[in-house]
C-alpha cells in the first residue's frame, strides 16, 4: 500500500448550516468532526458564525485544542453571531471575497448538512474541480442520508449526458464522521503534484 502523506491536509473548509436542522445527529456530527480535526492537527476554515452547525463544529474544534479560521462577510456579522473565540477571524466586504479566501485557505472541502447557502458553496467548488481549476478533495458528509437527493440528481445528470467525460466530477462521500479525515487524506495523496492550487488571479475571475 502506498504511504499517505498526512501533511497534505492541513486545513479543511467546512460548509454547513447556520441552523441546527431537525435531526440531533447533525449537531452531533458537527461536534465529532470538530474533535477529529483538533486531534489530527487540522485547522478548520468555516463561515465564522457561532450558531447552528457552524457554531457546533467551531466550538468543538476549539474545545478540543484545535485551530479555527472564520471568514465572514461584514453584513452577516450580527445575523450569524460572529464567533469571537477563534484564533483568526477575517471579515470580508462581500460573499465573493469570502468564498475566494475560503478556497485559498483550504486544502480540502467538506459539506455537512445545510441549506441553499451550503449547497451553493459546495457546487461552486465542484464546478471549479470539474473545469480543471483545482484538484482539492471535495467530500459530502452524508449524515443520516442527508445528501442522498443530491447524489440522485447527479446520477440523473450523468444519465441525461449533462455530466460526461472529460467533465466528470469526483465527489467523495462519507456516511460516518470517522471516515472523513482518512478519505480526505487518501484523496489528497492521489492528486497530481502541483495541481491542487488555483492561481489567485484566476480565483478572482471565477
UniProtKB/TrEMBL annotation:
GO terms for cellular component: cytosol. GO terms for biological process: cytokinin biosynthetic process. It comes from the Bacteria. Its EC number is 3.2.2.n1. It catalyses: AMP + H2O = D-ribose 5-phosphate + adenine. The keyword Lyase does not apply. This is Cytokinin riboside 5'-monophosphate phosphoribohydrolase.
Amino acid at each position: 500500500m502506498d504511504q499517505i502523506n498526512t501533511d497534505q491536509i492541513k486545513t479543511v473548509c467546512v460548509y454547513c448550516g447556520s441552523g441546527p436542522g431537525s435531526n440531533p445527529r447533525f449537531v452531533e456530527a458537527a461536534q465529532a468532526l470538530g474533535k477529529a480535526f483538533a486531534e489530527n492537527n487540522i485547522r478548520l476554515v468555516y463561515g465564522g458564525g457561532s450558531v447552528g452547525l457552524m457554531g457546533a463544529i467551531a466550538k468543538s474544534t476549539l474545545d478540543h485544542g484545535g485551530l479555527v479560521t472564520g471568514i465572514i462577510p461584514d453584513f452577516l456579522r450580527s445575523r450569524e453571531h460572529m464567533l469571537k473565540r477563534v484564533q483568526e477571524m477575517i471579515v470580508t466586504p462581500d460573499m465573493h471575497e469570502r468564498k475566494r479566501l475560503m478556497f485559498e485557505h483550504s486544502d480540502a472541502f467538506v459539506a455537512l448538512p445545510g441549506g441553499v447557502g451550503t449547497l451553493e458553496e459546495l457546487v461552486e467548488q465542484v464546478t471549479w474541480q470539474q473545469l480543471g481549476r483545482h484538484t482539492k478533495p471535495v467530500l459530502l458528509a452524508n449524515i443520516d442520508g442527508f445528501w442522498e437527493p443530491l447524489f440522485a440528481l447527479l446520477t440523473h445528470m450523468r444519465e441525461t449526458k449533462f455530466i460526461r467525460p472529460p467533465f466528470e466530477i469526483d465527489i467523495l462521500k462519507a456516511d460516518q464522521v470517522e471516515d472523513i479525515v482518512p478519505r480526505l487524506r487518501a484523496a489528497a495523496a492521489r492528486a497530481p503534484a502541483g495541481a491542487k492550487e488555483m492561481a489567485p488571479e484566476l480565483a478572482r475571475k471565477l
